[in-house]
Design goal:
- This protein has about 260 residues and is mainly alpha-helical.
- Helix 2 packs across helix 12, helix 3 packs antiparallel against helix 9 and helix 6 packs across helix 7.
- The protein starts with 17 loop residues before the first helix and ends in a 28-residue tail after the last helix.
- The protein has two domains: about 100 residues, Helix-hairpin-Helix base-excision DNA repair enzymes (C-terminal) (Endonuclease Iii, domain 2, Orthogonal Bundle); about 100 residues, Hypothetical protein, domain 2 (Endonuclease III, domain 1).
- Bound molecules: iron/sulfur cluster.
- Iron/sulfur cluster (SF4) binds next to loops.
Length: about 260
């Protein structure tokens, strides 16, 4: 009698679990509009509140990352931070403010002296002109004190809405607007809080949906999130506390 040979059973591969499974799923992109979680309007008050809540819990007590001791120093540091990291600015400002501790002192500095001190922040010639002009105007028009209105701040050389919002918000606790830097712009679009592409228009959109008492902290929280997690090239979605709310097409990993 012939012996029946039992066909060896091929082990069934285990379905990937956890992060691995979700990473694999994420390789087949699904339009954000078709994702199952996509039932509410991206700018609905409930969704915006959920984003604000998650950000506050993730970054409690967050503050401006530029070192400063007064409104003048914060103004100068913010001007220097254009196209430059806050870490780099924080390396430059101690020596700058040691040599020129007040607007009066900086107003008397020559441009080459200022350029030398701020060279490593990039665009140093324009920035030197801006901080020199800012010092002169603050001394001549505002008695050496940074003013506390948007209108007056915008008269200072080198100060646009972003810098004015940073100083008014972080130093004077005046919610004059939402700071829109490169991180806030990128994240606001990824979180579908705006479709705009210019800082001015993004700011307007955000101010319509973010409660005014959250304008100041919201900017800081988004800037921190943009630096640490929702980075420009490959957002770290697997580590993101907003992941379940986020439907961005740029996600690198998705749970839904
Ligand atoms: S899930 Fe990803 S894309 Fe969305 S906010 Fe978080 S890091 Fe950014």
């Amino acid at each position: 009698m012939a012996t029946r040979v039992t066909k060896p059973v091929r082990p069934v591969p285990k379905a990937p679990e956890g992060k691995k499974a979700r990473k694999i799923a994420a390789t087949e992109p699904v339009s954000p509009k078709k994702r199952p979680g996509r039932t509410v309007k991206p700018t609905s008050p409930e969704r915006v509140a959920a984003i604000l809540d998650a950000l506050r819990k993730t970054y409690p007590g967050v503050v401006c990352a530029l070192n400063h001791r007064n409104a003048w120093e914060l103004t100068v540091a913010t001007i220097l931070s254009a196209q430059c990291t806050d870490v780099r600015v924080n390396l430059v400002t101690p020596e700058l403010f040691r040599i020129y501790p007040t607007p009066q002192a900086m107003a008397k500095a020559s441009l080459p002296e200022l350029e030398d001190l701020i060279r490593t922040t990039g665009f140093f010639r324009n920035k030197a002109k801006s901080i020199s002009g800012a010092a002169k105007l603050v001394v001549s028009e505002y008695g050496g004190e940074i003013p506390q209105t948007m209108e007056e701040m915008l008269r200072i050389p080198g100060v646009a809405r972003k810098t004015a919002n940073v100083v008014l918000g972080s130093w004077f606790a005046i919610a004059s607007g939402v700071v829109v830097d490169t991180h806030v712009l990128r994240l606001s679009r990824r979180l579908e809080l705006t479709k705009e592409t210019t800082p001015e228009k993004v700011e307007k959109d955000l101010e319509k949906i973010i409660p005014k008492d959250r304008w100041i902290d919201f900017s800081h929280e988004l800037i921190h999130h943009g630096r640490q997690i929702c980075i420009a090239r490959k957002p770290r979605c697997a580590d993101c506390t907003l992941e379940t709310i986020c439907n961005s097409i740029e996600k690198t990993w998705s749970s839904h």
